[in-house]
Amino acid sequence: MLNQLSPDAPVQDAGLHQAAELDASLRAHEAFISPKFLYDPLGSKLFEAICELPEYYPTRTEAAIFEAHGGEIARVAGSGATLIDLGAGNCAKAARLFPLLQPAQYVPVDISAEFLRGAVERLRDCHSHIQMTPVGMDFSRSLDLPDSVRAERRLFFYPGSSIGNFTPDEAREFLQRVRAACGQDGGLLIGIDLAKDAKVLNAAYDDALGVTAAFNLNVLRHVNRLLGADFDVCHWRHQGFYNEQAGRIEMHLEARSAQQVTWRGGSRLFQAGEWIHTENSYKYSPSEAVGLLEQSGFAATKVWSDPHNWFAVIHARA
Ligand code: AVJ
C-alpha cells in the first residue's frame, strides 16, 4: 500500500502489515525478527557507524572497486538513467556515483522513510539538475513504484550486499522482480559480498567496539515501538558469527535470563539462552553470484572485484 504524502515527502508504507508480520515472527517456534526492522532512525545511524569500523570491510572494499573501475562501470551501465536506489539509507553511495552515471532521475527507496527524507533534502541542494523522487517503502514486499518514476532506462542500484539478507531462493525471486521492473533497456548494478576467511567475517559482524551489538539490540527498541512490546534490551546479548556450513553470517539475540515479553495482541516466555534470529548475510563465490543473476533472467553480466577478491560489483543487463 503506497500513500503519497506530498511531492517532496517520501511515499510511506502502512504500518499494519508490519505489526502483523512481527507478531507472527515472534510467535514462531524459532522466534525471528526480519532484518529490515533493524533500520529505524537510530538503527540507520548505527549502520552508518558500522560502515566506518575497521573490521567492517564491505563498504570500504565496494567503494574502492567503484574508485578503481568507476569509468568502466559507468560505460557499461550507461548514463542518463532513472537510477533506482534500493535501500538508499543516507544516499551517499549513489551520490558519489552521480558524476559518473549522470542519472536523469534519482529514486532512493528505503523502509526508513524519515531518515531518507533528511538525506534527500540535503542532496537536492547540490544536485538541482537531477529529479529526486524519494520513496519510503518496504521493497522486499513490492516493487510497485509510483507513476512519477520514469519507465525508460531504469538502472536499479543495490549495493552493499544487501542481497545477502535473502536466502538464495528468496534472492532469485527478488531479482526476478527487479528484472521485471527494469523494462526493456534497463539493468542492475549490484554489490555482493564474497565468501572468505571466517576470521575476517567474524570480526566484521562482532566488532571490538560493540557497534554491531548495539545495532542488533536496537531492533528490540524498534519492535517495542511498532508493536507496543516490552522487550528489555539489558536482558539480551548480541551473537554474530559465520556459519560456514550455510555460507552465511547469522545474527541472533540471546536471552540472558528467562523472561516474559508482552506485546499488543501477544506474549511469550523466552527461556534463558533462547535465541531470536535477526539477520542472515549470505556470502557467495563470484560464479555463484553470477549464477544467481542469470537464474533470475538477467542477460549479460560483468564483474569487478578488489585485489583480495573480498567483494564483487556486478552489472547485469535486463
Ligand atoms: C546491510 C545487509 C549488507 O549484512 O553486512 C552489517 C547489515 N549487519 N552488520 C550486512 C549488517 C551487521 C549488512 N547489510
Automatic annotation (TrEMBL):
Pfam families: Methyltransf_33. Its EC number is 2.1.1.44. GO terms for biological process: methylation. Transmembrane segments: none annotated. One of its GO terms (molecular function) is L-histidine N(alpha)-methyltransferase activity. It is an enzyme of class 2 (transferase). Residues 20-317 form the Histidine-specific methyltransferase SAM-dependent domain. The keyword Kinase does not apply. Keywords: Methyltransferase, Transferase. It comes from the Bacteria. InterPro entries: EgtD, EgtD_Methyltrsf_superfamily, MeTrfase_dom, MeTrfase_EgtD-like, SAM-dependent_MTases_sf. Gene3D superfamilies: Vaccinia Virus protein VP39. PANTHER family: ERGOTHIONEINE BIOSYNTHESIS PROTEIN 1. This is L-histidine N(Alpha)-methyltransferase. It comes from Massilia forsythiae. The gene is egtD.
